């Protein structure tokens, strides 16, 4: 009988199981009829799931599918993967690819440098949330220095409130006298503007002060409403006017400052934009 003593092979351990969390939402909003001709009630029914899995210590898979439904307004129906990305992390370095919710800017409400995300105006016009954008991000997060680079390959465009919503263009036209300018929601991007965008942000921390340097070049992800001449016949004998969602070029550079002075948190922003 022969016995061998010594360290054996490392014990195999299965990766942790995925975690799943979620919630359901139900509610209603009522508006005075004088402010919303033809529609004074909005229902909100929905559910959100959060699925996270780390098959390896450095890798992570994240998915956040969402379902929203308003039985009175088909224009508010949503079934979207708000987040669906694969990430890799090694120390302070992080890489993610997929659909992500990107939030820039240090202000609490209006963030002029928050230009890398698309908002869902059609579901909540007063306080729209971000629905996620397909992107590739690389970042470094240190104590005194942080860097982030974002590549956005496509433009999906904004969903506007449907005609039955109290916040729609049609409701506004009714309140202003009933004139009609139809809205064309399909994204219009000028021929010399690419849907691809690049963005970068650097953070410098000194004591209780954070400085953010922001740069963006590409297509403006917040649309403008432009007048468009439309013709139903080839010879354009009788043209009509319509509003169309236009996405021009946007070049942006900004400096943000966030400093703690005693019990106060002071914030300021200096911004330069060059839209086409």
Descriptive overview:
There is one protein chain. The protein is an all-beta fold and 276 residues long. The strands form two sheets. Strands 1-2-3-4-5-6-7-9-10-13-14 form an eleven-stranded antiparallel β-sheet, with no helix packed on it. A hairpin with an 8-residue loop joins strand 3 and strand 4. The longest helix has 7 residues.
Give the helix level as a range of percent: under 10%
* Biggest sheet features: 11 strands, antiparallel
Number of strands: 14
> What overall geometry do the principal axes of the alpha carbons give?
globular
Low-pLDDT segments: none
- Determine the strand fraction and express it as a percent band: over 45%
Average pLDDT score:
85
The number of helices is 1
Structural class: mainly beta
Q: What is the CA–CA distance across the termini?
A: 85 Å
SSE order: EEEEEEEHEEEEEEE
Radius of gyration equals 24 Å
Strand order of the largest sheet: 1-2-3-4-5-6-7-9-10-13-14
């Amino acid at each position: 009988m022969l016995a061998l003593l010594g360290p054996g092979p490392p014990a195999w351990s299965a990766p942790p199981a995925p975690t799943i969390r979620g919630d359901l939402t139900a509610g209603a909003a009522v508006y005075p009829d004088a402010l919303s001709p033809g529609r004074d009630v909005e229902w909100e029914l929905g559910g959100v799931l959060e699925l996270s899995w780390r098959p390896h210590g450095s890798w992570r898979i994240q998915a956040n599918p969402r379902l929203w439904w308003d039985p009175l307004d088909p224009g508010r129906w949503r079934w979207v993967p708000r987040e669906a990305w694969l990430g890799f992390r090694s120390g302070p370095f992080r890489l993610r690819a997929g659909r992500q919710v990107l939030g820039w800017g240090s202000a609490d409400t209006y963030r002029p440098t928050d230009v890398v995300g698309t908002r869902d105006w059609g579901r909540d016009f007063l306080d729209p949330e971000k629905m996620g954008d397909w992107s590739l991000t690389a970042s470094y997060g240190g104590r005194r220095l942080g860097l982030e680079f974002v590549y956005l390959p496509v433009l999906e465009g904004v969903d506007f409130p449907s005609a039955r919503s109290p916040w729609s263009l049609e409701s506004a036209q009714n309140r202003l006298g009933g004139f009609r300018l139809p809205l064309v929601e399909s994204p219009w991007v000028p021929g010399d503007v690419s849907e691809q965008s690049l963005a970068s942000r650097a953070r410098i921390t000194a004591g209780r002060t954070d400085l953010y340097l922001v740069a963006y070049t590409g297509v403006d992800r917040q649309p403008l409403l432009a007048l468009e001449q439309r013709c139903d016949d080839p010879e354009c004998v009788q043209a009509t006017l319509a509003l169309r969602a236009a996405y021009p070029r946007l070049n942006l550079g900004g400096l943000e400052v966030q400093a703690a002075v005693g019990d106060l948190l002071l914030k300021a922003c200096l911004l330069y934009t060059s839209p086409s």
